[in-house]
DNA sequence: GATGAAATCCGAGTCAC
DNA sequence: GTGACTCGGATTTCATC
């Protein structure tokens, strides 16, 4: 069942990545198979986890989340427990869009969306530096969003 | 026409953000209005740009893009022309998921997805340091994706 | 083992109110 | 905003290769 993807599966994946609300009928016609076949293949892409979820991209500025900030975080100690505690805590913060453990001068790199700089400063003082094990943070305010959340190229 | 969003509009937005393929009938029932009303409201959310596009989230590892890298970029000069040239060039690179102009020790912060470290090293040497005006780059390999592309909280 | 044709059922989209 | 109505698509079944 969990076979590799053929050219048609890849076409479906790419189409749904760019237009997640395409109907099965439209998909079927575009990729050149019958609606029944297309339906089965699309189902499989979901069932086997090739597609996680389908998400409407909400315009951040339209819902009062126009400010984007990246933060370099350094922890006190580099122990597994320290990392785990930090990760558990930051995963709960809803304004964190992205946060990865990296190799280099920082430990983590959260990307945060808030209403404005004032919001961020409050959150930084109240919640970020209070996260478990944080020794230091370095804030990078985003002045211009050049490429934001581009679709995956595959 | 471009009025503010009421509680029902927000509900629709949130539902579509988490399940972009919900049918209008399901949406309508969940938010508690008739299908006709729901259809009109949803249409408006698209027409007025509250929702940009709907995207199937493809699992990166399943399509051979398991490696994530963040790169701090410093340009030679801080002139508008220099920034513009860099932005035009990096926006064309398909493996760049994110790239923002920031305030702080770096100028730009591209986030890049590739197959593996070897891929990245090739790309770094061939394409990143060759971008117009790049003086220096600092690479942060992602060792663990803690939060990736979380939905917007609003 | 996968396909497409057909058949059923349900939702999309539009109307009048 | 709702209710009804029509049309077309979603989803299943089944014969076929």
From TrEMBL, chains A, B:
A GO term, aspect molecular function: sequence-specific DNA binding
Biological process annotations from GO: regulation of DNA-templated transcription; response to amino acid
tRNA-binding recorded as keyword: no
PROSITE patterns for the chain: HTH_ASNC_1, HTH_ASNC_2
Signal peptide (UniProt feature, chain positions): none
GO cellular component term, pick one: cytosol
Residue ranges annotated for the HTH asnC-type domain, each copy included: 5-66
Keywords from the named record: Activator, DNA-binding, Transcription, Transcription regulation
SMART domains reported for this sequence: HTH_ASNC
Record protein name field: Transcriptional regulator, AsnC family
Gene3D superfamilies cross-referenced by the UniProt entry: 3.30.70.920, Winged helix-like DNA-binding domain superfamily/Winged helix DNA-binding domain (1.10.10.10)
Transmembrane segments: none
Keyword DNA-binding attached: yes
């Amino acid at each position: 069942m969990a076979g590799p993807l053929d050219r048609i599966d890849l076409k479906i994946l790419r189409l749904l990545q760019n237009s997640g609300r395409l109907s099965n009928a439209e998909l079927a016609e575009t990729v050149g198979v019958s609606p029944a076949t297309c339906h089965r293949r699309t189902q499989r892409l979901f069932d086997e986890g090739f597609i996680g979820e389908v998400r409407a991209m909400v315009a951040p500025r339209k819902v009062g989340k126009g400010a984007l900030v990246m933060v370099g975080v350094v922890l006190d100690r580099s122990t597994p427990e320290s990392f785990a505690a930090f990760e558990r805590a930051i995963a709960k913060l809803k304004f964190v869009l992205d946060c990865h453990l990296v190799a280099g001068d920082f430990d983590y790199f959260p990307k945060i969306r808030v209403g404005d700089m004032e919001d961020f400063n409050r959150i930084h003082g109240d919640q970020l530096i209070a996260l478990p094990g944080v020794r230091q943070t370095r804030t990078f305010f985003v002045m211009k969003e050049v490429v934001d959340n581009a679709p995956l190229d595959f």
